[in-house]
Amino acid sequence: MATTAKQRRLARRLRQLRTQAGKTVEDAASQLDCKHPKISKIETNQSGVKPEEVRLLCQLYGASDHTTESMVTLARNAKTRGWYLSYHGVANPENIDFAELETDSVSVSNFQIDLIPGLLQTPDYARAVIRTGLPQITEDLIEHRVELRTTRQERVLAGDLSVWAVITEAALLRAMGGRDVHVAQLSRLLELAALPNVQFQVIPTRAGEHVSMGVPFDCFQFDDGFGAVAVDHLTGTLFLEEEPDVERYRLAFLHLCSTALSPQDSLTLLRKYLKEEHSEWERRS
Fold this sequence. Notes:
Blueprint: H1 5-20, H2 25-32, H3 36-43, H4 51-61, H5 65-77, H6 93-104, E1 107-112, H7 123-133, H8 139-152, H9 154-158, E2 162-168, H10 169-173, H11 179-192, E3 198-203, E4 217-221, E5 227-233, E6 236-240, H12 243-259, H13 263-284
Parallel strand pairs: 1-2, 2-3
Antiparallel strand pairs: 1-4, 4-5, 5-6
Helix pairs in contact: 1-4, 1-5, 2-3, 2-4, 4-5, 7-8, 11-13
């Protein structure tokens, strides 16, 4: 039976809280007045757990009030899938999982190599990216996926989701969709980068090697301080949810930020390319 990202996160967090508190499975079973196999099934996401049971376990583990309430809310909503479920059938399951993780996040850190991140794309740019990556897809499905991508952006525009985007200089140069699409995308990127909840940095080509060459990824952070990672590859997306894996990518992102130009210098470079692209395309036409 398919499980939601919330259910997986709840199971993982309960196991982490127990081990951090130095409690055994038997201790947890005693707290819930149940047999220890139930605890094992809860922690491996083979069985659900009630909100009141989560509260009791958090009390045993000495969790803070904030963590406890966050965990209880997570348990209450664990089986719920949001607005993105309406795209089931027109987007693949990985797209739905990605949207769910992003919706549950308070911040997203994204690294892209030769594309503008999805949360900052114009509809026309997104259309060109999807069509290029999936040449056999129908125009109808392309439109549904563009709609999914633009709907995801609403939280950014509303200020409800913080975005820190790091791209390489190549992403500013790649003219996805042709002249008008490219120029409009650079202009839109300049507008979005001015939002208080958006951080934008560029790794210049002259910077040479960096820690994540060839590996674009997203780091999601939830309100309890924990997170998840999505790593793109040609055949789909790999989701990493264990804390050591997530921490490795967090550190990698910090390294990318230190390698990149400052936000101010990144915007200066973006303005330079926007100005040059206008004149370059005019010379070509």
